[in-house]
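Handoff note, outgoing to incoming analyst
You'll be picking up this chain. Sequence as last confirmed:
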Amino acid sequence: MPEHQSSRYRDRPPVDNNIIRMLCGRPTAVAHDLICEHVKLGDRVVDATLGNGYDTIFLAGLVGPTGHVDSFDIQKEAIESAREKLREHNTCSNQVTLHHASHEKIGSLVKTPLQAVMFNLGYLPGGDKQVITRAASTLSALQAALDLLLPGGIVSIVAYIGHPGGMEEGEALRVFCRALEGSAFSVTFHESPSDNPIAPFLITINRD
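Most recent structure output, in case you need it:
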């Protein structure tokens, strides 16, 4: 490359990989990257919406055998699917607790301070699309997660809003998170650059 061209590219600011992932429609990849920056071996974390278990497996890998993951889902099929995936990944049974319960039970079933909590809002992929997360229980769960969050901890929320009820939950979530600004928490809205009004979006909350 000629010198005049290389110097031009050399002075260009580095590309934000999170923006690239959002452009590619992958808010979950951004969430995983940010969670990795905050979670270490031995930490206690929560997967508030177990689904098919992929976030639980991801978290279990981060905290290792000395840490612990509490995972929540109201659907029995999600619990069974996740349990099978955990066996396939040789994850120790005492490293993960699968709660067949709504995420709004976090406050009553988890008593240990948390380093990270992950939410994926919507419905179980491949499951009954009538069974969805809803604003009231989600906000209750989110408040419980924030109450347990350690200083330096993080909550990630990926909201899928393209289904009936999704837009309402997404808007309630935005209002709740905006009200946190200026408190003990820092909120970042990772908006999708897509023109699609029902594109999923990511919100992260850090405890200062």
